[in-house]
Records
---
Amino acid sequence: MKAILFMLILLSMKTTLTSEQIASYQQDGFVLHRGFLSAEEVAELKEAVVMTVAAMGKKTVAGGGVDMQAGDSYYDKVFTQRLNLWRINDTAKKFMLNSDLGRMLCRLAGVEGFRVWHDQALIKEPYGNPTAWHLDNPYWSFYSKDSISIWIALEDATPENGCMYFVPGTQRLATFDNVGIGNDLGELFRIYPKMREIDPICVPMKAGDCSFHNGLTAHGAGANMTRKRRIAMTCAYMPVGSTFNGQRNILPEAYFKSLQHGEVLANDDWNPVVCLQNAMARA
Ligand SMILES: O=C(O)CCC(=O)C(=O)O
Ligand SMILES: [Fe+2]
């Protein structure tokens, strides 16, 4: 009975994409997907996220990654950021490693397969600082033009509480140079002056909506000017076959030390596969 219920819950996720959405993602480097989760799914995932974040305390990476603690800096007040919840919470795992979601990623990016890089709960607390413009992929332990993230609104995300903004087409202008998410909102545009010429798009979402963005698309979020938490759950995915670039990011120490530059990142425990198309054909 429990298993049947489990299936029904998963089946109600809206995982079909239109060809317009795919074309729009490929053109702009991001796309909005409305109604991804039902109200019940939002409640289930939100509860799991809030509970897991609370249980982690100041520890920022769960499940054996780099040992880091949140502090009291400007960055700590951009959001409460807790990573790899999927490693310690089955609900987060069920959603973030879902194979239908995996298929959406493959279709959007036009690549054969993805592994989880890391998930992140991103809670912009009341009066939280804005999220400075940045690119994601340069922080990670591999470089790819095809990495992708999902950002799921678990509360309505609005211009008042810090919804996301994207600069369309910037995935084609970016290299792997980056800036930190610090207190200089527009620093990214000093290294990429061409990106300044494009108008950012504000992407408010209802709880249950999600967006997908390429790891090289410039994006940021506003401040939270409200008294309520802006709660989002996100996950970044790495194309299958990506290679180690020498950066640690959140890798566990022993694994990090064992890696050679250029080695394929293929650790099924740490970076499980969420979709592999043509797997049958190649088997
Ligand atoms: O939620 C935010 O404020 C920023 C999110 C972000 O940068 C991301 O998901 O890559
Ligand atoms: Fe980001």
---
Amino acid sequence: MSLSLTVLGCDGGYPGPGGAGSGYLVQAGGRSILLDLGPGCLSLLQQRLALEDLDGVVITHEHPDHRQDLEGLAVALHFAEHPRRMPVLAPSGVRDLMYFREWEELQWVDVADRDQLEVAGMRLAFSRTDHGPETMAVLVDAAGARLGYSADTGPGWSLGELGEGLDLALCEATWTAAEEGRAQHLSGRQAGAMAREAGAKALLITHRWPTIPGSKVAQEASLEFGSAVLAARPGLTLSLPGTGK
Ligand SMILES: [Zn+2]
């Protein structure tokens, strides 16, 4: 038994050519949840999983590149032959922005800093990051493995808030060191240093701005992390070995 992560989309800010906004499929014990559902991700999800097999959605914050396709999911659930309800865990501001916010198929669960709860047999913990709107980083603890997702953040927050020694840190690295300070995001350099300081066992960088060269961001991150990092791309799947529990 393992915890698996599949990248649906990983573009920062807006989808680049052929890309999609942030969206990650997390599976353990035969159950499936999403971390974020940015533009383009609903289409890519259905190439891998029937919507009736999805057990829940986490939306980290209200920026459209992380939540836009939640509208399409609401439509699909509402008009399905067998309508069903779906837990949506998000900071309260997300629901307020939804066009279909009154439909009961989306079962809203407000999450705030330091909340902990269980969805689809996975233990989740949240930590508010350094980003404009209320934004929640997420720890997923399941199948004996721990995955930490930074969501969007500036350098005023740390992966260590999700716990030391993560099996995998999925961390935003929006641009290079030359762009540091332009907004509340991380460079590859900052992401690599943050993951090293938190003792993460592996680092997967994501949320690259579409016009920024990925090889440069990854190189910066690797230098600071101290070993090779992985760069997110649509379709990439990683399995985190568990303890057999
Ligand atoms: Zn973003």
